[in-house]
Task: structure prediction
Amino acid sequence: MEILTDAATLALYTTDASNYRHVPRGVVLPETVDDVVAAVAEARARDLPVIARGGGTSVAGNACGPGLVIDTSRHVRGVLALDPETRLARVLPGTVLDDLQAAAAPHGLRFGPDPSTHSRCTLGGMIGNNACGSHSVAWGRTVDVVRSLDVLLYDGTRLRVGRGEPTEGRIFDELRALVRDNLALLRKELSTWPRRVSGYGLEHLLPENGFDVAKALVGSEGTCVTILEATVSLAALPDRKVLAVLGFSSDIAAADAVPRILPWSPLTVEGVDAELVAMLPGRAGDLPPGGAWLFVELAGDDPGEQARALASSLDLTGFAILDDPAAQRRLWRIREEGAGLATRLADGSEAWPGWEDAAVPPERLGAYLREFKALMRAHGRRSVVYGHYGEGCLHMRLDFDLLSSEGVAGFRRFLEEAADLVAAHGGSLSGEHGDGQARSELLSRMYSPEMMDLFARFKGVFDPAGRMNPGILVAPRPVDANLRVRPAPLSIEDVTVLGYPEDRGSFGQAMRRCVGVGKCRNTSGGGVMCPSYRATREEQHSTRGRAHLLAEMINGEVITDGWRSSEVREALDLCLSCKGCLSDCPVDVDMATYKAEFLHQHYRRRPRPASHYSMGWLPLWLRLSARVPRLANAVGRSSLARWVKRFGGIAPERDLPSFAPSPFTRARADLRRQATGERRVVLWPDSFNNYLTPSVLDAAWEVLTAAGYDVVLPDRGVCCGLTWVSTGQLGVARRVLDRTLDVLMPYLADGYEVAGLEPSCTALFRGDLPALMPGDARASLLASRTFTFAELLERAPIPFAALDVDAITQVHCHQHAVLGFGADEAALAAAGVRNTTLDSGCCGLAGNFGFERGHYDVSKAVAEDRLLPAIRAASPDTVVVSDGFSCRTQIAQESGRTPVHLAELLRRALP
Result:
């Protein structure tokens, strides 16, 4: 076991998903339970506080602190045992919830509580916070399903606690005395209302509740013990269920309806408002009319009829009843991504947690929400509204000003008044996230001084030295201290090259996008983000980890050398620039753009890696090699190839691509003309297809011509500059693009459209141009006139002959992130292709990434995650379709299959 104290590791763990920041004294990534015990012993020997950490998704600030951070999520994970008969499972603290659900599902079981972070939150963290989630209205909170815990005290004592476990010794004697001396107080103040999560769960020590020490420790936020193992109960999955989506005129009307819904015994009663839905383009069409919606899941013999009866009993603006699991998942995504989506309001303003987890009894929800909105108006604050309406728990992120001293003072005043309001309604400051630094100081507004003394006494039983997550719950830190939100210094802000149009032109504001919800740490679900984390399971190679390092570069305390930081460079080295985070991250973090900016600044006026000269300048080398293609191919197949790779910084494991006998622009020089038809299109001759696979451009010309387009080529050489962008040579990229825009402007002025065959080039025009060429009207015009090959066919359908073939398609990451794939699927269906679009993530080659020396192993591991297994599982007769040159290259080199571009396949179907 090693205590890590290097700057990069400390920077990664300075924060969680909260507003707070603490530089740890060290970080341990234990590999076994014994390592956890040894880490606590080492902390004790050095008199260091212990901060237990799971997935780092805490919104309250209880998973970061100035002590020894013990992260169990990397290695101390797994389901140790699962008994379908007793419905019990034994798990290690770092076990991700989705992994437990996957183990339970084949037995018709599931873990009841299900936070929206289920794909990366850990059982240890859920126990620490008493997490709840969407289904807790039916299946309970984490405390309701914990049966026993193996725990470790700071002094090294190990205990197994829970009903039926021994209760002899000092710990239990002191706890019994605490209860015996305060029975009336405990029964008066600690209500049995489910969402009273704030404070300690001392009610579980009452005689009528079985003196359950395990349950009393649930929700203690790492302030008493370190969890080593847990035994939890599982719930039976219902045989049949439907999702009733109920529309209301407003969020308040939805809140008022909750008491009339609960008697129907729903599995969920989740709410979202129209402002949140508007942040997911295209999703509003999946919902019935309304200004707010409740997602009510019902189960039973005839849940559909039950849902219709429920809907008819309410005053609704509309409703829909969904029994298709895929349709249900599409709508659940809106609710699950609320924590990320809500960090930006519709006008781009930043919004923050701090008052994101208050709860009141459901019968008080409507009244509370009315008064809370009045409080927001009085303070000039705004927020979207979503959350667990069925249990009175609302999640909000408000547009606090955390950058100025006046704003921080206003933040404190708002929290104090909001705490008084929720207490007046008999509610809880926390409904599931825990108190952390966000709410611990406010507990005295909810509880009496006598109860606060009891909380301190309870902690003291387990942690008399006060070294377990200090500053949380007992002797709390101020709510307005240690805030992580800081503006970028002018030394960073003033030199940035890219425009950051979505962040008001500010690199610093772009760096505040990541709030730490950690969806990029998902390793079991679909999507693209984050391929390097899925391959390595290392925090620094997640989108969140890189964002934290960039934020610490701005802060300048741990990462002290700004743009010259080796720590940031090393973390970004394995970023594939796939742009998966741009679409899959709920806050639209664009790490590919941030990497380009960093590389530009880092290597400014300095020598660069060899690959930046070889692959960054690839369009130039392709153009030169095209003059002597046979010689270039002979060198690539000879022993000289080894030296080419060595001096070019190219992975020795890679085969060099072969050059075509003649580039498409030379073979079809006749297309360099003016179009005469009504549908005029410039075929974009990207460097990859033009010099290496011109058959793709030839097929596209033939198909587009058959569709009625008059297809031409630019009259001069052009390039999108992508390879210079991805290697951070932004000055060159801008000059290349400026020249390209000059070449294309006469065509654009005459109404031509641009047909893109290579998704990365097309996505650059459609998505990146405003950042690369801010304020350039030519760039905006090109972005609006650029279309994918399939999108053009969608507007001019062809009566294709039915190919009657099966196909699987690998979608290029940039197409997934920026362009969409619906038109491609429609074109394949029109040609009689039985296509399956793979949810296979990034191919792993990712432009220059997989060709760079030192990247091959990660590149291959990314492909082996999902893509290559899916290709191997396909029949030999199944056509493999992929539009991206890098995707086709990876598939060909690692699977032996020969993939085709969509244009090549559709040419076969021309009538």
